[in-house]
Write a structure and sequence with these properties.
The protein has 12 helices and 36 strands. The two termini are about 30 Å apart. The C terminus is likely disordered.
Length: about 600
């Protein structure tokens, strides 16, 4: 700490020896098109922030074990940090290796969590060896940009909300040493929920403990004064908004309520980082899932999070409310004028309705979408080396009955993660998921062999809690009544790796654009599936809502002819709409309570 730009003593934070407060906002480079990084950072600076905070998503850089981590293009975290410096922002880096963030698998690559018997987030040698190798690749991009060598990185987080998961303090101390041994010399800190329980599990002596919470900041400050009296209070994740699961309402938090909560912490001398300042988008298959102990709760494609800077960059009322508090914390009551270019609406394509051509039959398409792998028992996605996407399982089973007296049986799937679309002899039989899979599906047989085909869709890996790292696909087996079916053929469907030729059989449409501009894609009569724009996988749609439109930022739109491709899993539609604004669904308003963790 002595050589770091930031330091603290007697519960006061210092920067270069002068009393200081961090006024920050979170922006995740992996959720924002790289052509828009500078624009979003500029907007954060205009909010009065002096710091940007970002997680590092390991699986974004290294989805396959056999390939070295990628730090180019969209994955060039060094460039993101450099752009922040250009805008006059300090940078806080949160490298995990676990990040939660409502991101698939909490940032862990599936090849890591799929290692049989591995212990996650503890001193398991298999786990720590993999972390060391990852940090060897990542940290040179961070260490070389620290304040000590003229860069903007002023602090680095150790792990993430560990007190919500485990109590292996040896692991936390090891994680700190791993950062220090690889050249991190700036201020290190942990982050945990704002209660004694979370501090017990995640904080260690000699390391700055910061908080994550959305309300009752005064109560958390009192706990810090009792537990960590020498440390300044820093809410490194102030939840000014919230994310959405499919099937819920879109969360809203009143701007004045959020700003008033921030003011309480700032008036007490604390520092605040707004999570999220700009949420961005879970493009592709980046969305994670939660699990409430009974059912899976997959996160929607948008990560707007009711943030001050909206998904499309718009400055919301919450932006202006936080801006007032951030400037007030610096002793400035008369706010400077905002640059005109930040107040202007982003260009948007004119609204239009486009006819959606019919695609190939879903079952026929997925049969041809990968190289089949055979096994006696069903294989999981991890065993197939598949990070995300879907798997088509096929086997022959004898369904009880006689030709003259058909019998109804129950098809059950044990250990189903997540959602299964089932065909018997080529006829669609229904859907099971990991909520009602135990009840099974009625199938009728005549005693003759029947071909079972089961398409299992990965809805996003669990990103928080004790089920983090849970496998995907069929983890158990397939039962006809109480009898297992064996000898399976699995066809991986790696949606995020599909090339343009792989999209040719999908439903589609085209549109002309005079020049690149934002647009919002809706499929009003479709059911559930995936959308590609000019070969780029935008993400998922689902008619259960709340999200209705998918945000397509201008850099993904071409001047001239543009192509939209749709893979529908449930109810093929006939129309694609380009809309002029977002529709994230019916709203549910309310404060984010301190006990609620991602």
């Amino acid at each position: 700490m002595n050589n770091a730009l930031l330091s603290y003593h007697d519960a006061v934070l210092y920067r270069s020896g002068e009393p200081y407060r961090i006024l920050a906002g979170a922006i995740h480079y992996f959720r924002v098109h790289p052509d828009l990084w500078q624009d979003r950072l500029r907007r954060l600076k205009a909010m009065g922030a002096n710091t940007v905070d970002t997680y590092v998503a390991w699986n974004f850089h290294q989805p396959k074990r056999e390939e070295a981590p990628d730090f180019t293009g969209w994955r060039d975290i060094g460039r993101f940090i450099d752009l922040a410096a250009e805008e006059g922002l300090d940078v806080i880096v949160r490298p995990g290796p676990y990040i939660c963030a409502e991101w698939d698998n909490g940032g862990f690559p599936a090849w890591l969590t799929g290692i049989p018997g591995i212990g996650l987030r503890c001193m398991d040698p298999q786990f720590t060896a993999a972390i060391e190798e990852w940090l060897d690749h990542l940290l040179p991009h961070v260490a070389s940009r620290q304040a000590s060598v003229g860069g903007p990185v002023v602090a680095v987080q150790i792990e993430n909300e560990y007190g919500s998961y485990g109590d292996d303090h040896e692991y936390i101390r090891w994680n700190r040493r791993a950062l220090e041994e690889r050249g991190i010399t700036e201020l290190l800190f942990t982050a945990d929920g704002g209660t004694d329980y979370f501090l017990d599990g995640g904080s260690v002596d000699g390391t700055w403990a910061t908080a994550t919470l959305g309300s009752r900041g005064d109560e958390a400050i009192a706990i810090w004064q009792r537990r960590r009296p020498d440390e300044p209070f820093f809410n490194v994740e102030f939840w000014g908004g919230w994310f959405d699961h499919w099937g819920e309402h879109h969360h809203r938090r009143d701007a004045h309520d959020a700003a008033a909560e921030a003011r309480k912490m700032l008036d007490a001398g604390g520092s605040v980082c707004v999570y999220m300042a700009h949420g961005g988008t879970n493009f592709g298959l980046g969305s994670g899932s939660n699990h409430d102990g009974t059912m899976l709760q997959p996160t929607v494609t948008s990560y707007d999070s009711d943030a001050p800077i909206a998904e499309n960059g718009a400055l919301t009322p919450k932006f202006h409310a936080f801006r007032k508090e951030f400037y007030r914390a610096q002793g400035i009551e008369d706010l400077p004028e905002l640059p005109v270019e930040l107040l202007a609406d982003a260009p948007v394509l004119p609204a239009r309705s486009l006819a959606l051509t019919e695609g190939r039959d879903l079952l026929e398409l997925v049969r041809d979408s990968g190289k089949p792998v055979t096994s006696v028992k069903p294989l999981t996605l991890e065993q197939l080396g598949l990070d995300a996407g879907m798997v088509l399982y096929a086997a022959e089973a004898t369904l009880p009955g006689r030709p003259e007296a058909p019998v109804e049986s129950r098809l059950k799937i044990t250990g189903l993660n997540d959602r299964a679309y089932i065909w018997v002899d080529g006829q669609f039989a229904g859907v099971l998921d990991d909520v009602d899979g135990a009840q099974g599906l009625a199938v009728t047989g005549t005693g003759a062999p029947a071909k079972l085909e089961i398409l299992v869709e990965n809805l996003g890996r669990i990103n928080y809690g004790p089920l983090t790292g849970h496998g995907k696909g069929i983890l158990g087996g397939v039962l006809i009544n109480q009898r297992y079916t064996f000898h399976w053929t699995q066809t991986p469907v790696a949606l995020d790796e599909w090339a343009p030729e792989d999209l040719e059989g999908l439903a589609g449409t085209e549109f002309e654009a005079g020049e690149p501009a934002d647009t919002y894609i809706a499929l009003p009569d479709s059911g559930k599936g995936f959308v590609w724009l000019n070969g780029f996988l935008l993400g998922r749609y689902w008619d259960k809502g709340p999200q209705v439109t998918l945000y397509a930022p201008a850099p993904l739109v071409k001047g001239g002819l543009n192509s939209i491709k749709v893979l529908e899993l449930a109810k093929p539609g006939t129309v694609v709409e380009l809309r002029e604004g977002p529709d994230l669904g019916p709203e549910e308003a309310g404060p984010i309570m301190a006990a609620e963790l991602p």
